[in-house]
Every structure is written in C-alpha cells, then in structure tokens.
Amino acid sequence: WFGHVEPAAKDPILGVTEAFLADPSPDKVNVGVGAYRDDNGRPVVLECVREAERRVAGNANMEYLPMGGSVKMIEESLKLSYGEDSEFIRDKRIAAVQALSGTGACRLFADFQKRFLPDSQIYIPTPTWANHHNIWRDARVPQRTFSYYHPESRGLDFAGLMDDVKNAPDGSFFLLHACAHNPTGVDPSEEQWREISFQFKAKKHFPFFDMAYQGFASGDPERDAKAIRIFLEDGHQIGCAQSYAKNMGLYGQRAGCLSILCDDEMQAVAVKSQLQQIARPMYSNPPLHGALIVSTILSDPELKNLWLKEVKGMADRIIGMRKALKENLERLGSPLSWEHITNQIGMFCYSGMTPEQVDRLTSEFHIYMTRNGRISMAGVTTGNVAYLANAIHEVTKP
Ligand code: LMR
C-alpha cells in the first residue's frame, strides 16, 4: 500500500531540534527553535502558570470544550489583542475561536479564506516563518510574496514593502507579523505602520496579523499590540492569530486564538459558526488545560501582573544576551558590523550568516540553528555566549 511513500524533507526548524538531540557532544548549543530558556539553558515554567495550575487542579473536569473553545479564554484573548475597552468587543463584532496555538489559528483562517473567498491569494513577507508557506499551501490558497527585509542594512525594506502593497491587486490578503518579526527581528516603526495602514486602506487590502510573540518585542504585551491598534483605529477589518506558546511558555499546550473583526454582530455570529464547522472534522474541539491556564491568569489581576513581570523578565534576558553576543564578537576583533544583533528585536537575530557558515557552526562547533542564519537569542546564555561568539567569529572571518 505505501511502497511509493518517500520520506518527507526535514522541517527546517523542528528538524534542527532533532539533530541537536541526537548529538552526544557536551559542548552542543541549540539556538534553533524559538523556545525560551533560562540562563542555565533550561526550559521555563512561569510562576504564574504554576499558580494557575494549582488553582485549576482542584475544580477542573475533563469535559469537552465547545467546538469554538473556552469562552472565557477567548474573551481574555480579545482584550489582549484588541484592547481592554475595545468598542469591537463591546459591539460583539469579533468572530473568535480558541485555536491550536498560532499555527492552528493561521490554518483555520487559511481554510476559511479558501472556503469563502476561493479565488483569493495571500501575500506573505520575504522572508517569513517557514511554516506560513506550509499552512497556506496545504489550505490550497495561492501565495505571493512581498518585500520585507533589506539584507544590506539588515533592516526593513520599507520602500520595497510599500511598492508591493501598492502593486498588489485591490482587495488582497496580506499576512503581517504583528510584532517581533520571525525570523528577522525587524519590525516597522509606529510611523511606518501608520503609512502601511493608510496604504492598505487605499487598496482595500485585508490585513491578517500573526501575533506569536506579543510581549517579546518591547517586554510589554500592550505595547506590542500597537500595529493592530493602529489598523483598528483606521477602520480596517482584520484577522488575528494569537499564541500563548512563547509569552506564557505554554508551547506544548497549544493554546491560541483566532479572531476576525466583522461588519456587525450578525456577521460575526455567522463567521464564528463557520470557523467551528471547519474545526469540527479536524479536531472537534480544542484542548482544555492550556485554555484554563490562560483564562485563570488573564482574569485575575494579581496573576496577570505576575505574568506581565515574567514576560518582561524573559524579554530583558534576551536583550542582555544580544548585548553580550555583540560585545564578545567585537572583543574577538571581528571586523564585521554586528550592530544588527542589538538593533533587531524579539526572540531572533537574523545574523546574515550563509547556509554554508551555519553548516560549519554545526559540524565544527556543535552549534545548531536554522540554515537561514537565524539565531534564537532565547537559547543564548551567560554560559555559552563566549563559545557561540568565538564560533561565529571563526566561520565569518573574511
Ligand atoms: C520557531 O520559529 O522556531 C517557532 O515558532 C517554533 C516553530 O514551531 O517553528
């Protein structure tokens, strides 16, 4: 039956973790997957999560959630993305369902897009998170790309981006990273977001925000929702994928939310019912435990404050490691500019290293990262930063 099945290509991100785990070297370093580590390189369970687990342990049952997921978790998620006092929440204009983290939210949206706008395409930034391509491919939505990153400046290609937005057919779908762009660590400034929003309005484009790193750009989830708030102020209808993998450290719980801002409450009810109908044959209803943790934390002012402190702590440790990596490279006498390590934000540094240089890091130094040169700064620690800098210096020497 299955003799014709060839092995699939390794995943460019999760395949790195597999290779790292298989390496017996005591020196090995994993700066591949975007998953936060403490300064000892260990995974972190946030204190607010531990406390929420204590609180839900006694009274939770194991019943199914509704097809659309936990109502309380969705309510809290919308406050985080649209704003505590959002008129859109008040007017019940948002169709929202709990999703299997950010990936699941994007996939639900892509399937919805295919089902109800079968002739539409999606514009995806170059570069983007590799899985975005898989998601819209499997939903059979044709993909186009738009300019985003400027390799020479290692910053935003704003002119290219604006040209591509202008040249796309009116009414196109665009995938935007709400903050802490993955993999580049490069975000538009507030002023640039305003210009992008203005141009989207003129072209009647639909912005779909993937917000996987809310809190990791500035250390403050509220500030990191700025791009979305600008688009909302400008009167756009938007879509939004939220994930609690990174900002609550709930990676394996698959806790997230998909929301679509509609014209009115009636439309929102219809859209939500269709999203549920897409979810039902795929997974019936989303997982319970992560949703309980999220809603417990966000609905309790004390736990929410603790969470905000802990998110800031994670973001600050990463900023510290950016400085340390740059200083180490400069101390080693690298003639190259490493300014971008500290200019870029969020969890990643888009180093500019070539796939061949990355291969050398892995084969000679047991350092594991994606071949596009992305370093997950969350995997850098006081203990490995000098080793990492030295290896980078060795493979990038002119
Ligand atoms: C990453 O980009 O490393 C993370 O989003 C993990 C993943 O699923 O790819």
From TrEMBL:
Its cofactor is pyridoxal 5'-phosphate. It comes from Eragrostis curvula (weeping love grass). It catalyses: L-aspartate + 2-oxoglutarate = oxaloacetate + L-glutamate. PROSITE patterns: AA_TRANSFER_CLASS_1. One of its GO terms (biological process) is amino acid metabolic process. One of its GO terms (cellular component) is mitochondrion. Homodimer. Keywords: Aminotransferase, Pyridoxal phosphate, Transferase. SUPFAM superfamilies: PLP-dependent transferases. The lineage of its organism: Eukaryota, Viridiplantae, Streptophyta, Embryophyta, Tracheophyta. Belongs to the class-I pyridoxal-phosphate-dependent aminotransferase family. CDD domains: AAT_like (cd00609). In eukaryotes there are cytoplasmic, mitochondrial and chloroplastic isozymes. One of its GO terms (molecular function) is L-aspartate:2-oxoglutarate aminotransferase activity. Its EC number is 2.6.1.1. Residues 27-392 form the Aminotransferase class I/classII large domain. This is Aspartate aminotransferase. NCBIfam families: PRK09257.1.
